[in-house]
Amino acid sequence: MRLLGLGKIDFYIIKKFLGTYFFAIVIIISIAVVFDIAEKVEDFIEKEATLKAIIFDYYVNFIPYFANLFSSLFTFIAVIFFTSKMAYNTEIIAILSSGVSFRRMMYPYFIAALIIAIFSFILMAYVIPPANEDRIIFEYTYVRNPIRNTDKDIHLQIEPGLFVYMKSYNVTNDIGYKFAMERFEDGILKSKLTSDYAKWDSTMAKWTIRNYFIRDIDSIGVESIRTGSKIDTTLNMKPEEFKRMKNFTEMMTLPELNAFIEEQYMQGADNVVELLIDKYGRVAYPFSTFILTIIGVSLSSRKIRGGIGMHIGFGLLLSFSYLLFMRFTTMFAITGSMDPFFAVWLPNILYAIIAIFLYRMAPK
Questions:
Q1: Which of 154, 156, 161 is nearest to 177 (CA)?
Q2: Same-domain status, 48 and 99
């Protein structure tokens, strides 16, 4: 009994596909590591990074991140390369002449693409984020500047009906300047606190608010005023929220990212679109493996003037145009001109149409 209906030819194609894919990754990653070392070696020496930290905290975690980042490109290169070679060795003609249809010949390609897509999704959703934590912390320790919060006019909804405002936040001293807090009930302002600053007290795990002025409004609209020099309060807000690195979502698994998006929705944060783009991309990006596989096979399954080099050149042009278009639509989503889900999936939709067209033309 044949596994999944696969024969010798199918296993031959799958072996070629996956073998070329992982070989391309090894070659490109090796080059990337060499260039990265050359670029950062002065920082490593200047900030006295240990060899153990460089290897295990940075490059062991850098390699899977970089490999998955260009997984679709590696897939495309692999398909173009070995399929072109099969075409110029007349192996494609031999397969089709044996009674195997072009559609049937695509079956092992889809099996291999499915393996790569599942592998890529698992990496993006669950494996790479924990690894990214060590890599990114290493970068901020030995390569980049220390973390600073440059946000101004910070607005947060820390729980339903409770809003916080700060003019700025100092991550070194954990102080929020020009601190204000408003409490609403059924859309009606019930209390407003303004103060010079709020400082985090790590020993008590509370916020200490200095030089405050509180205006309370009762049910019939009568106001009362309270003032003081110091008041301690417990808020659903921690200093870590203001010390997050720029690319901190790369350290979140998919369940953690989903939970964080819900939290940001509640707080009325302005970075929800970027978070949704990250979330949708963790599914859309692996799915592109199937689209680029169809395009690659359709382009390289026949002999053309110019040989394998022409196939690879045209394939790279199409692949980079896909990546560029993906960035382009993402920018539209960030500016609010396009729905995040549609922006992330639009490149797949467009290139799926191109893939279907090329697929139908290929047997001819």
A1: 154
A2: yes
Output DSSP code: residue 117: H
Does residue 332 share a domain with residue 205?
Answer: no
For residue 115, tell me if it sits in a domain.
yes
Q: Contact 332/345 with Cβ under 8 angstroms? A: no
Burial label, 98 (beta-carbon count in 10 A; 0-12, 13-18, 19+): exposed
222 and 315 co-located in one domain: no
Residue the block writes with tokens 């072996």: 15
The DSSP-derived string for 10-48 is HHHHHHHHHHHHHHHHHHHHHHHHHHHHHHHHHHHHHTT
Two structure tokens written together for 349: 């939709």
Question: What is the rounded distance in angstroms from the CA atom of residue 278 to the CA atom of residue 153?
Answer: 25
Q: In terms of domains, do 298 and 204 share one?
A: no
Q: Quote the pLDDT of residue 289.
A: 93
Q: How many domains would you assign to the chain?
A: 2
pLDDT at 1 over 60: no
Q: What is the pLDDT of residues 193-214, one digit of tens each?
A: 999 999 999 888 899 999 999 9
End residue of a domain, out of 244, 263, 289? 244
Quick count: other Cβ atoms within 10 Å of Cβ 349? 11
Cα separations (Å) of 347 from 1, 157, 244, 325? 40, 34, 30, 6
- The single residue listed with the structure tokens 């009362």 is 224
Q: What's the whole-model pTM score? A: 0.79
How far apart CA 88 and CA 69 sit, in angstroms, is: 31
For residues 214 and 190, the answer to whether their CB atoms sit within 8 Å is no
What domain range includes position 324?
3-144+271-361
Q: Is 161 in the same domain as 136? A: no
Question: Is there a domain that residue 325 lies in?
Answer: yes
Q: Are residues 121 and 235 in the same domain?
A: no
How does DSSP assign 293-356, residue by residue? HHHHHHHHSS--TTHHHHHHHHHHHHHHHHHHHHHHHHHHHHTTSS-HHHHHHHHHHHHHHHHH
Domain shared by 136 and 156, yes or no: no
